[in-house]
Design brief:
Layout: E1 2-7, E2 15-16, E3 20-21, E4 26-27, H1 35-43, E5 48-53, E6 58-60, H2 61-72, E7 77-79, E8 86-91, E9 95-98, H3 101-108, E10 114-118, E11 124-125, E12 130-136, E13 140-142, H4 143-154, E14 161-164, E15 169-176, H5 182-197, E16 202-210, H6 213-225, E17 230-234, H7 245-252, E18 256-260, E19 271-275, E20 278-282, H8 294-304, H9 310-314, E21 337-338, E22 344-345, E23 352-358, E24 374-375, E25 378-379, H10 380-389, E26 395-400, H11 404-411, E27 417-420, H12 428-438, E28 445-450, H13 458-467, E29 476-481, E30 484-485, E31 489-492, H14 496-499, H15 510-514, E32 519-523, H16 536-542
Parallel strand pairs: 15-16, 15-17, 17-20, 23-26, 23-28, 26-27, 29-32
Antiparallel strand pairs: 1-5, 2-5, 3-4, 6-13, 7-8, 8-12, 9-11, 9-14, 10-12, 18-19, 19-20, 21-22, 24-25, 28-31, 29-30, 29-31
Helix pairs in contact: 2-4, 6-7
Domain MoaB/Mog: 171-304
Protein name: Molybdenum cofactor cytidylyltransferase
InterPro entries: Bifunc_Mopterin-bd (IPR012184), MoaB/Mog-like_dom_sf (IPR036425), MoaB/Mog_dom (IPR001453), MobA-like_NTP_Trfase (IPR025877), Nucleotide-diphossugar_trans (IPR029044)
Length: 551
């Protein structure tokens, strides 16, 4: 890759290194300059720009990120489309992340421009949580280096996979001493139940008994007879030796003690044994608290079916200091960072609602409802709905109005949500506001799609969602073709209130101009984002006919 000051006569096809705000239009960092861009720069008085030019064998940043992410992402993971050289990995379901740290190191040592950051191995994660981010640092990287890292990522099996939690019936045994309060046992029951809930499991049977070997052995046996596939023993007094009451009870119930103690604090006094193929865990005292402790690490693996023995527990000392200390306060609290403007950052895929505007009267089309006009064997609006249904949008809401029942019938098998706009005759803004009001409070943003733009693909929609990141200043995402802005447009939730104040037959495109610093453009390689079909002539052209009337 050639990087540096680039004369304008060599700049076409180069990647712009720094943004420039010109009189007619802004050219942003990372844009691949075309002839129109070069002309604009020349008209603005530029003779050169700082840019990157790819050489033979180079792989552009997004293409490299997509290839490498696809190679290393294994079972239970999903990958976002690359944007500015970054592709994120997410958990498809709740479970435990598995990978070899040595292999990760080898991946990151190939080239300084290729980086992969992952959550710690064996970390329990929620569905949709980000588990890794792959970033190509420069605008392009050598194809040879991509091939080498691709091989490390793929090898015999993809580097990163997720072992999902397996629904497990759990037996809970709690023992009492003379001074034990029932409220303490009740609290332990609820804390344990909450832990298991996030792992698709539940307490199938609980027994409370005296803190004696005989009573505990009988209680363990009772939980097994009630179908427990994992037994948790919370003793009234902490286990302090392999010959203490709880391990003795496990052995009396026909089991063995596999390991006592762990290099994690809180959690040192945990014990793990087995009766046949069923694990039995002697809980440390900290397990009565909902805060993260060493028991969580063992429980997550057990519920996911990941082996946990002496060797695995012995290796948990790396990062095993979980206790709150002044230089590392509250490491286990779940916090969401905010940029001060109502946009939140969290380690999960953005939840984007798709709003399909399908309420209009099609006045320019004549007597025919353009949304129901047949194109390639199906109604025009269905093309848009199918693209949204196949995308990474978390939901799809169709706004109905004119000929609502017929439009609904054309989409019924796709099972979207619907919102009816009684004021559809008053213009586009009313449908947009109806859709925004219907998507709920738990979304991060919404992509506003027009029903008369059937050429927009799922790939374009997914690229827009991948580019969305309000914390990094990408709160509005708009597609472009040769520098001209098109549709659909993705808006962060922070703009919903402002969008609700729009009136007339207009959308919210003015917000892009009002918030240029928060907008990002996605250049596409076809005319789909500029092509709306709202006249008979446009319909005839789309159908590939030469007739002037699309009928």
């Amino acid at each position: 890759m050639i990087f540096g000051n680039t004369p304008l006569d060599q700049a076409e096809g180069a990647v712009l290194a720094h943004s420039h705000r010109l009189e007619k239009r802004s050219l942003k960092k990372g844009r691949v300059l075309d002839s129109d861009d070069v002309a604009l720069l020349r008209d603005a008085g530029f003779t050169s720009v700082i840019a990157a030019r790819l050489e033979d064998g180079d792989v552009a940043e997004d293409a490299a990120a997509d290839r490498l992410a696809a190679a290393l992402a294994g079972d239970g993971t999903t990958v976002s489309a690359a944007f500015t050289g970054r592709a994120n990995l997410y958990a498809q379901t709740a479970g435990v992340v598995l990978y070899d740290p040595v292999r990760l190191d080898a991946f990151n040592l190939v080239d300084e421009a290729i980086t992969l950051a992952l959550v710690p191995p064996y970390q329990g994660v929620e569905e949709g949580q980000m588990i890794g981010t792959l970033k190509i640092i420069s605008f392009a990287v050598s194809g040879d280096r991509v091939l080498l890292t691709e091989e490390i990522g793929r090898r015999d099996q993809p580097m990163v996979r997720l072992q999902p939690y397996q629904s497990t019936p759990v037996g809970l045994v709690q023992s009492r001493l003379s001074g034990t309060k029932e409220s303490v046992l009740d609290s332990t029951m609820e804390v344990t139940r909450a832990r298991l809930h996030g792992m698709a499991s539940e307490i199938s049977h609980e027994v409370r008994c005296d803190h004696t070997t005989d009573a505990l052995a009988q209680a363990i046996d009772e939980t097994l007879h009630h179908g427990a596939r994992l037994v948790l023993v919370s003793g009234a007094s902490a286990v302090v030796d392999r010959r203490d009451v709880v391990p003795a009870a496990i052995e009396q119930a026909g089991g063995i003690v596999e390991h006592f103690g762990m290099p994690v604090d809180p959690g040192n006094l945990m014990l793990i044994g087995r009766i046949g193929d069923i694990p039995v865990v002697g809980l440390p005292g900290c397990a009565r608290s909902p805060k993260l402790n060493g028991f969580d690490w063992v429980l997550q693996r057990l519920i996911a079916g990941v082996p946990v023995g002496r060797a695995e527990i012995g290796r948990m000392g790396v990062g095993g200091l979980l206790k709150d200390i002044p230089t590392r306060p509250m490491p286990r609290s779940r916090r969401r960072a905010s940029n001060g403007d109502g946009d939140t950052a969290s380690a999960r895929a953005p939840k984007i609602a798709a709003i399909l505007l399908a309420a209009g009267q099609s006045r320019r089309m004549g007597s025919e409802n353009k949304l129901l006009a047949e194109l390639d064997g199906k109604p025009m609006v269905r093309h848009v709905a199918e693209a949204l249904a196949a995308s990474k949008a978390a939901s799809m809401t169709v706004v109905l109005g004119h000929e609502a029942d017929t439009v609904r019938a054309s989409l019924a098998d796709l099972k979207p949500s619907y919102a009816y706009n009684p004021d559809y005759a008053e213009g586009l803004s009313t449908s947009m506001k109806t859709g925004i009001a219907a998507v709920g409070e738990d979304v991060d943003g919404a992509i506003i799609c027009l029903g008369d733009m059937p050429m927009v693909s799922t790939a374009v929609i997914d690229r827009m969602i991948a580019a969305f990141d309000p914390v990094e200043g990408r709160a509005i995402v708009v597609p472009t073709r040769r520098g001209k802005r098109g549709n659909p447009v993705l808006f962060a939730k922070r703009f919903f209130e402002e969008m609700g104040r729009v009136s007339g037959d207009v959308g919210a495109r003015h917000l892009i101009g009002n918030h240029e610093d928060l907008a990002v453009e996605i250049e596409v390689d076809d005319e789909s984002v500029l092509t709306d079909i709202d006249t008979p002539e446009a319909l005839a052209k789309a159908r590939g006919t030469e007739q002037g009337n699309g009928g």
